[in-house]
Amino acid sequence: MEVIVRKDTKSAVRLTAQLMGDALRENPKMVFGLATGRTMEAVYAELARMCKEEALDFSLASSFNLDEYIGMAPENENSYRYYMNHHLFDHINIDKRNTNLPYGLAEDVEAEGERYEAAIEAAGGIDLQLLGIGCDGHIGFNEPLSSFSSRTRAKALTPETYAQNSPLFQRPEDMPLRAFTMGVGTVLDARRIVMLVTGAEKAAIVAKAIEGPLTSMVTGSAIQLHPNVVVILDEEAAANLTMRKYYDWVFMHEPEWESYRNL
Ligand code: GLP
């Protein structure tokens, strides 16, 4: 795992988008794993800018989102499908037929999980998985105690997640209590993981995920098992890290990061 701390949210976001853009330039047929949440809105705005101003080409790319609320139609403004169209897909030249989310209205919940897993496999697997982290340590909607080998399935959300996400609904009481989510095992199958965490409210939980013990109580800690992970933080989110000096040292001296230092 590599941990990169940037001076502010803006440069953390730019670095994240830059890594995604560079990966896409290298492999135009990238299969992205995508995340939702407030943190990612700025990343998607930056990718949209790069598409428009720097001819970043998504025409051959495809994507799989981590999760979707159960019982929510794609047209619903609170669905993650709507979020993705609104923040990213409507602003880049990706073929929407190649963008995938679990279908919130699927009648057979178990079959929907299996369908999604099969679709990821048929696409050749996920090349780069973008992740945020929830206040209870979840990745996707893998709430505490989710198995590290879990696959896409329905998950009951915690009261913490309800408190964190329901203010985003016009009527907070409309937030579903369950969601489809890729499993922790699905996420770990991605060839590369880029996690972005910003803001003081995430400092304690992200320190647990990065430097704490592996535990399904903090499903974000599962990324420690993955051989190719970059975690990008702003100063506020990095406040509780103990190995900070080492992270800065690596970023300053490893040749891999040379072109990213001035972002
Ligand atoms: C939701 C998503 C997660 C995301 C989290 C963080 O719960 N399911 O994938 O990481 O929100 O959201 P925010 O960026 O708003 O803090």
What do these coordinates show?
The protein is of the alpha/beta class and 263 residues long. The chain has one domain (2-260): Rossmann fold. The chain has helices spanning 9-26, 38-53, 80-87, 109-122, 159-165, 184-188, 203-211, 244-253, and strands at residues 2-6, 31-34, 62-65, 67-69, 99-100, 128-131, 153-156, 178-181, 192-197, 229-234. The chain has a 7-stranded parallel beta sheet with strand order 1-10-9-6-2-3-5. The chain has a 3-stranded antiparallel beta sheet with strand order 4-8-7. β2, α2 (38-53) and β3 form a beta-alpha-beta unit. α1 (9-26) crosses α2. The longest helix has 18 residues, at 9-26. The chain is globular. The site of 2-amino-2-deoxy-6-O-phosphono-alpha-D-glucopyranose has 14 residues, from α2 and α5.
Q: Strands of the largest sheet, in order across it?
A: 1-10-9-6-2-3-5
Number of strands: 10
**Overall domain count:** 1
Segments where pLDDT lies below 50 for 5+ residues? none
Number of helices: 8
| Average of pLDDT | 97
The rough form would be described as globular
CA-CA gap between termini: 21 Å
The amount of helix comes to 25-40%
Q: Structural class, please?
A: alpha/beta
